[in-house]
């Protein structure tokens, strides 16, 4: 769905390269992009979304060159849920907030409202249609922003730190939403520091370090590469580390898996 070739970018002409020589192909697998702050993850996503233009290289989305598209045009294909919901919310009611995106990509008012209510039902905020978004809790605001993007029905949805400010119940809700979107054939990407959530929910993981791709593969394989993860200053999930300390040979990704495997030992 996305092919990135020889991508390089710097914020100042002739300045330090934030990204250098990136080559990645995204298919239908849900994918987490991890790495320390400053590794280039957010810049990479902004390039995919059309908010920035590369210095060198090419980004093909559905075979068209993203460099030749405006950010508004890219919004029809790629949706981005911001890390901080307060950066995304500006309308007077919950329903208006979720309708804004669909209307902005020229969806008819009737269809936009239908899509908005459907998305709000997904995130369980359809009982707050006339509420002021700023009166929602931080967790609810995050869900509102997810609904705003889902309502646009883009093929690709990017989550920026989806689990920040979420308690266990909030994380479970976001997990359900991601699974439903995957079942609807959406490509789900995330930038995230929550390794436990990555291990439980994403099929593929890409490790960025100093503007380059250090590791890319099946999530279980990636979390088995201790030396490379250490180089990127990334720690495997807590349950993965515990299982290793207890002598389990296979890379364990979830608590349920740990219980199942330990019960057969």
What structural class do the secondary elements suggest? Answer: alpha/beta
Question: How far apart are the first and last residues' alpha carbons, in Å?
Answer: 41 Å
The number of E-state strands comes to 10
* Radius of gyration, CA atoms, in whole angstroms: 19 Å
Biggest sheet overview: 6 strands, mixed
**Level-1 CATH class name of the domain at 1-74 and 192-232:** Alpha Beta
Total helices: the number is 11
DSSP strand (E) fraction?
A: 15-25%
Q: Could you estimate the helical fraction of the residues in percent? A: 25-40%
Tell me the CATH topology of the domain at 1-74 and 192-232: Rossmann fold
Report the average pLDDT across residues.
94
Order of helices and strands: EEEHEEHEHHHEHEHEEHHHH
Low-confidence spans: none
Shape: globular
Order of strands in the sheet with the most strands? Answer: 6-7-8-3-9-10
CATH superfamily membership of the domain at 1-74 and 192-232, which one? P-loop containing nucleotide triphosphate hydrolases
Q: What is the architecture of the domain at 1-74 and 192-232 at the second tier of CATH?
A: 3-Layer(aba) Sandwich
Walk me through what this model shows:
The protein is of the alpha/beta class. Among the domains are: 1-74 and 192-232, 3-Layer(aba) Sandwich (Rossmann fold), CATH 3.40.50; 235-265, no CATH class. The protein has helices spanning 41-49, 71-74, 94-104, 109-122, 138-150, 168-183, 195-201, 219-222, 226-231, 238-245, 255-263; strands spanning 2-10, 17-26, 31-34, 56-61, 64-65, 78-81, 156-160, 187-191, 204-209, 212-218. The strands form two sheets. It has a six-stranded mixed beta sheet, sandwiched between helices. A four-stranded antiparallel beta sheet has the order 2-1-4-5, with helices on one face. Helix 3 crosses helix 4 and helix 4 (109-122) packs across helix 5. It is globular, with a radius of gyration of 19 Å. It starts with a strand and ends with a helix. The relative contact order is 0.15.
